[in-house]
Amino acid sequence: MNGVALKTAATARTKQKMLLSFAALAGVVIYFIYIAIVFDVLSLSQRANWTNARTLVADSYSYKTHITKSNRGAEGITAAIEGEKKGRYPDGVLPEWAVNDVVGKADITLRDGSIVELSGKVVRFDIPEYGLVTITTRNSGIELNLPTTEVPEFISASRTRVGITTPGGRVNVTKSKTEVFRYFMGWELFFFTLDSPFQDKSWGELIGLAFSSDQIVAGQSNLAAMVEDFLNNPMWRHVDVIWAIGETILMAFLGTFGAAIVALPLAFLSAKNFTPSKVGRFSVRRMFDFFRGVDGLIWTIILSRAFGPGPLTGALAILITDTGTFGKMFSEALENVDDKQIEGISSTGAKPTQRYRFGVIPQITPVFVSQVLYYLESNTRSATIIGAIVGGGIGLLLTQAIITGKDWEEVTYYIVLIVLMVMMMDSLSGWLRRKLIGEKEK
Predict the structure, then answer these.
(1) Rounded CA gap, 48 and 46, in Å?
(2) SS3 for 164?
(3) What is the helix (H) or strand (E) element at residue 345, kind and residue range?
(4) 264 and 180, same structural domain?
(5) Does residue 280 sit within a domain?
(6) How far apart (Å, rounded) are the C-alpha atoms in residues 325 and 263?
(7) Tens of pLDDT along 353-407?
(8) Is the Cβ–Cβ distance between 180 and 124 less than 8 Å?
């Protein structure tokens, strides 16, 4: 009878567990359905603009040269890399793939060999595998003539604007101007701008000039002139970028090590075996909770209102947040120290300060160093975001490049630098950790 009862109970328990499992699974499915409805996931693909996404990705690893012609009476045709004044060709000068033999007219060869003809207020574009597209700018609007009755996906058209995107390049026509874009791989004028004497020279030529005694810039060696032109490149601002990287690392360094210095003595006040007063321990621990409970970005906003923008404000925000984190970790490490080592130091007649110095600090040093160096790596990334808010470091440059909406190659450049910076800090902290703590024998 007992065996039957046990079997019945086991069967009921098994069914109960199965029902709980199915209920949990059903709860997860319902939750994901709820997310899909709230965030309108089903219409995401319809709302997504894949053309803009492809353009953004292309802009991150390539650049475009703008050929611009006014449609408001001026006959001049200009060329500028990325449309910037700092990358503008001299007046009357166009790239070799843009022929301008007659005033107000130009034949522009795109990357796939197709040609865009600009003639007055008329644009003719013979698109491979589609046909001739003619765009005429009039006072009443823009007239578009296509070889088909339906407008294909790669052409966006209205009465005031026509845009054509093909693998070879893009054409934008408005009532005010016509622009033709041709893409090139790489980052535009990354080393030297158009006004530099070293522009358009091959690496072999640059190496030869670097060791040549013939000075291109009077009173300056060729190598020094190259370095100066590179660092002072007005489009990429390499000097500003190097300075910004230094500011970001400095914010992380000051904030992290400042927090460690402040948190260590406070940790003794919150440890049970060093501070018998419950009121004192409670007060210090709640202070740690408050410091780390408020996110670093919130501290950044508060401090920027109090002290104004700048890298020091970012360092203070990191310092306050990490003081709470370090205080909690250090106090826990102190509560787990070996009392025998402290008693051994005390038996020699050591004073309290000496007991702490030689009996406590050596025990918590591995935790101290490991955590501080780990947070130094993490804060290097955090300093990038904090810098974007308080106006300092590489984060500010990254934010400025994103806001413009057109300098995505600069965004890529800054992201690459940030990743390299984090990798460098990771390697450096790992090396310091091995030197200070040592490696465990395998």
Answers:
(1) 6
(2) strand
(3) helix 339-346
(4) no
(5) yes
(6) 8
(7) 777 777 777 778 888 888 888 899 889 988 998 888 887 889 888 888 888 776 7
(8) no
